[in-house]
């Protein structure tokens, strides 16, 4: 089935691309979640509109992403969690926890799906976390995990 992607789908393509996928994948996953629309003859106009909007948005986002990167890398992010005597956490720190800590530190709003934790944070200390703000911009920040 031919579909037009309205959002970027990893491993498939970016917004505005026309791709061929299996019928069930399009019908049961992509279309109901709003990631794609069915391709029609008149759909080419939609493809062109999506590409134009994406191009304008990408330019603005790149400038905004660099600005947000500067704000994020200047933050002192502390995350208070419950831990045992040896400094091991009860559980681990998640992307949502990092987003809340950034917000509490006065930083910009970040999407939790953009936060990448290289290895699970299960101990007290300072850990590196990266945030993908744009295809070309990635911010690295230090998260200080302290015992609550």
UniProtKB/TrEMBL annotation:
Q: Where is the Ribosomal protein L9 domain?
A: 13-40
Single Gene Ontology BP annotation: translation
InterPro entries in the cross-refs = Ribosomal_bL9 (IPR000244), Ribosomal_bL9/RNase_H1_N (IPR009027), Ribosomal_bL9_bac/chp (IPR020594), Ribosomal_bL9_C (IPR020069), Ribosomal_bL9_C_sf (IPR036791), Ribosomal_bL9_N (IPR020070), Ribosomal_bL9_N_sf (IPR036935)
One Pfam family, please name it.
Ribosomal_L9_C
Instruction: Provide a Gene Ontology MF annotation, just one.
Output: rRNA binding
Q: Which UniProt keywords apply?
A: Ribonucleoprotein, Ribosomal protein, RNA-binding, rRNA-binding
Output the Gene Ontology cellular-component terms. Answer: ribonucleoprotein complex; ribosome
Q: Which family does it belong to?
A: Belongs to the bacterial ribosomal protein bL9 family.
**What function is annotated for this protein?**
Binds to the 23S rRNA.
Question: PANTHER family, alphabetically?
Answer: 50S RIBOSOMAL PROTEIN L9 (PTHR21368)
Name this protein carries in UniProt: Large ribosomal subunit protein bL9
Q: Which species is this UniProt entry from? A: Kitasatospora indigofera
Encoding gene (name): rplI
């Amino acid at each position: 089935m031919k579909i037009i992607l309205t959002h970027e789908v990893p491993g498939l393509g970016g917004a505005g691309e026309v791709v061929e996928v299996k019928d069930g994948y399009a019908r049961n996953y992509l279309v109901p979640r709003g990631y794609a629309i069915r391709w029609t003859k008149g759909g080419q106009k939609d493809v062109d509109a999506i590409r134009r909007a994406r191009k304008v948005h990408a330019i603005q986002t790149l400038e905004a992403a660099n600005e947000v990167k500067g704000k994020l890398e200047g933050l002192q992010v502390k995350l208070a969690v419950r831990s045992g005597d040896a400094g091991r956490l009860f559980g681990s720190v998640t992307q949502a926890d990092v987003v809340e800590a950034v917000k509490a530190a006065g930083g910009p709003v970040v999407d939790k799906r953009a936060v990448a934790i290289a290895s699970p944070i299960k101990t007290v200390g300072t850990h590196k976390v990266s945030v993908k703000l744009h295809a070309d911009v990635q911010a690295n920040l230090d998260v200080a995990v302290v015992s609550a």
